[in-house]
Amino acid sequence: MDLKDLYRDVILDHNKHPRNFGRLDPCDTSADGNNPLCGDRLTLTLRLDGDRVSDIKFEGKGCAISTASASLMTEAIKGKDGVAIKHLSTLVHQALTAHGDDSLPPAELGKLAALAGVREYPARVKCASLCWHTLDAALKHRTNSLGETPTGPATVSTE
Amino acid sequence: MEHHANIVPWQMLCQRTGATLKVAPIDRRGELDLATFKALLSNRTKLAAFTQVSNALGTVLPIKDMIAAARAAGALVLIDGAQAVAHQRVDVQALDCDFYAFSSHKLYGPTGIGVLWARESVLREMPPWQGGGDMILTVSFSGTTYNDLPYRFEAGTPNISGAVGLAAAIDYLDALGIERAHAHEQRLLKRATAALKAIDGLQIIGEANEKSGVISFVLDGVHPHDLGTILDDEGVAVRTGHHCAMPVMDFFDVPATARASFGCYSDDADIDQLVRALGRAREVFG
Questions:
Q1: pLDDT single digits (tens) A48-74
Q2: Could you say which of A12, A61, A65 has the minimum Cβ distance to residue B255?
Q3: Rounded to an integer, what distance in angstroms lies between the CA atom of residue A58 and that of residue A18?
Q4: What residues form DSSP beta bridges with B53?
Q5: Reported confidence tier of residue A148, pLDDT bands at 50, 70, 90
Q6: What CATH code is carried by the domain that includes residue A118?
Q7: Which residues 10-39 in chain A show a CB within 8 A of chain B?
Q8: What residues contact B33, with CB distance under 8 A and at least 6 apart?
């Protein structure tokens, strides 16, 4: 285990300069995620074009891993449809939780592969996965109220 | 500066009984506002519950004064001693409180057991809180008579191995000399406080005049959880997070802190290693 595998330059950069930070108003769907044990909080707001995420922003407070993961996620999924997002989400989850597996993460993860160092720090996996769980809640929330404005934000808690 | 364990049960009690929970404020140093605490007491105060030492800040509260004031108002007094018992001698009779609670695992004992001491006259008036084996004298289908103190509060098979382990931990601390442990920790606390204050961008959360051996702190630009991972990598174990004391995190407007704690086993080399490891955190985060 090397700290540099966890805190790679991409992660430090996205922590210091988070992309797509803020709130979309109006938005088509949104969700709050929080990690009560460590206090990380995150709000996602999304604009949709049919099944495609046309725009996404996040805001919240958290550690470098959770901030960078959310920032990288917003970059990666913008423009993608539900099926592509689900596929990416599964790959990320596998990369984060493959404890003891030193094979390289799949190339299609792109920059998201930088998060794979988390797999050697089990206590930090939930920091990196919070945004993906929140995204899942936001997309499900939208599906449940198809054609209607969401009545309130969906919430997800990773404990 | 209370632990959730001394907040949530009282909120639950208030919901059940309609009682009102009043909270005494603290100041920016993390010290209790004793005058306001006293002003909040009245002849309608049923119970005053406070910690002896804050787990999140290290503040040692002026409990002798607080107990005297609460008892003078006619309230029962409960002390959360979880953070105190491993670090100073406690004499519940001299304190003159009604209840004193602590956990074994904060005293180097096993998890899953703790102690709730209560004044005998109070216990005599209390109904059993749990029914089962051992707490009875006789049982028939027409009724049950309860056993004497303390058995009436000890329903079911007790945590025997836990009690044996806790007794061994207490014997260990006694043999070591709790006053010696206290003096040792106080010396380390002073030295570490000075060392941490010298670090640029480091802010100590909780600077009460009288503290027990913990230092809660934040470092500019490094979230406490990242700090925890890096310190861990450097062989330094700290607690990070809200320390089950979310209201005090809100008060100081921090999402979490890192907290270095000193026990009878800590030494000067541990402080040096902590300072070095904090330097490493600075390097990683640039």
A1: 999 999 999 999 989 999 999 999 999
A2: A61
A3: 9
A4: B60
A5: low
A6: 3.90.1010.10
A7: 12, 37-39
A8: B24, B25, B26, B27
**Shortest CA distance to A106 belongs to which of A127, A120, A118, A92?**
A92
Same structural domain for residues B102 and B41? yes
Per-residue pLDDT of B254-274, as tens digits, reads 989 999 999 999 999 999 999
Q: Which residues make Cβ contacts (< 8 Å) with residue A82, sequence separation at least 6?
A: A51, A139
B233/A63 CB distance under 8 A: no
The pLDDT-based confidence of A5 (bands split at 50, 70, 90) is confident
State which H helix or E strand residue A88 sits in.
Answer: helix A82-97
Give the count of domains, chain A: 1
In this predicted model, what pLDDT tens digit does every residue of A74-129 receive, in sequence order? 999 999 999 999 999 999 999 998 877 777 888 889 999 999 999 989 889 999 99
B193 with B255, same domain: the answer is yes
B120 located within any domain: yes
Is residue A15 packed enough to be buried (19+ CB in 10 Å), middle (13-18) or exposed (0-12)? buried
Q: CA-CA distance, A93 to A107, in Å (whole number)?
A: 15
For residue B198, give the CATH number of its domain: 3.90.1150.10
**What's residue A153's pLDDT?**
56
pLDDT per residue over B41-95, tens digit each? Answer: 999 999 999 999 999 999 999 999 999 999 999 999 999 999 999 999 999 999 9
Residue B244 annotated to the active site: yes
Question: Which ipTM did the prediction report?
Answer: 0.85
Considering the entire predicted model, what is its pTM?
0.90
E runs forming strands in chain B: 47-51, 76-80, 99-103, 114-118, 136-140, 143-146, 202-205, 214-219, 239-241, 257-261
Gap between the Cα atoms of A28 and A147, Å rounded:
10
Cβ-defined contact of B233 to A1 (cutoff 8 Å): yes
What is the mean pLDDT of the segment spanning B220-227? 94
* Domain range for B42: 4-126+160-173
Q: Mark which of B145, B173, B201 sits at the end of a domain.
A: B173
Please choose, from the candidates B50, B48, B68, the residue with its C-alpha nearest in 3D space to the C-alpha of residue B59. Answer: B50
Strand partners, A21: A58
Q: Cβ contacts of residue B137 below 8 Å, gap of 6+?
A: B145, B146, B147, B148
Chain B closest CA to A68's CA: distance in Å? 12
> Which of A14-18, A144-148, B112-116 comes out lowest in average pLDDT?
A144-148
The CA distance from B235 to B219, in Å, is: 18
A91 in reach of chain B (CB within 8 A): no
